[in-house]
Amino acid sequence: MMIDYGLQGKVAMVTGAGGGIGRASALAFARSGAKVLVSDVSDSNGEETVALIRDMGGVAAYQRCDVSDGTQVKAMVAAAVDQFGRLDCAFNNAGINSVTLDEYDDAVWDRAISVNLKGVMLCMREAAAVMVKQGSGAIVNTASINGIVGNPGQPAYTAAKHGVVGLTRHAALRWAKAGIRVNAVCPGVIDTPMSAQAAADPQIRAMIESMTPMGRMGRAEEIAEAAVWLCSDAASFITGHPLLVDGGVTAF
To answer: Are the C-beta atoms of 235 and 7 separated by less than 8 Å?
Structure first.
């Protein structure tokens, strides 16, 4: 059951909203009453998310954005303000996972860091500039359990997600007195298109599930609920926190 977090009259921006956690989160923000600026690098997927929101009676608009490009990020945030007049919630969720590639390769490393870390910084910076003028706002960045613990197979992804956690803590301190809260969600293995390639193998899926104390992969909607809650007044005294949503993986 989805919860209404009372975001009526608020404006939310979600990156990577064309599928997976991003789409689930855009729908959850809309369900709680927010107008939603949907962003993705896939126009068809992003527009589909907008259509889903409108079909449920919500208000949404789409803006294409590669979050590693500062000019596109500026345009995305400007589009949210132009469309809806303000920006109250920013879920900086867009990211890539190069699990099948050698992240020590220069090009793979640069792309992973550019999207997963620099992209979060750019989105956070531009959203905060609007929120500082308003005197209020909430930002949530998508990190990972690999922002808290190590991963022997993905040096760039692990470094980037650790960076997101550090950046989140920095920003929480920087903008606390400006009325802006900044937190992160740290998902475990979530059943999304990004994880589908590995999880398609029944043996690998069983191994993933066995590594999780709760015995299953997470659902995109479970991360969405955490992100929307962190943006709501229910979390009004929480800032600088990396919220683990991992089924107990990091409890060992």
So the answer is: no
Is 11-246 CATH 3.40.50.720?
Answer: yes
pLDDT in tens, 1-27: 567 899 999 999 999 999 999 999 999
Global confidence as pTM: 0.96
In degrees and rounded to multiples of 5, residue 244 shows phi and psi of -80, 125
Supply φ then ψ for residue 207, to 5 degrees.
-65, -45
Paired tokens of 237: 């005294």
Catalytic residue among 5, 62, 104, 157: 157
Would you call 157 a catalytic residue per the annotation? yes
Q: What is the C-alpha separation between 210 and 179, in angstroms, rounded?
A: 42
Name the helix (H) or strand (E) containing 149.
none
Beta strands in 116-201 (DSSP E): 137-142, 180-187
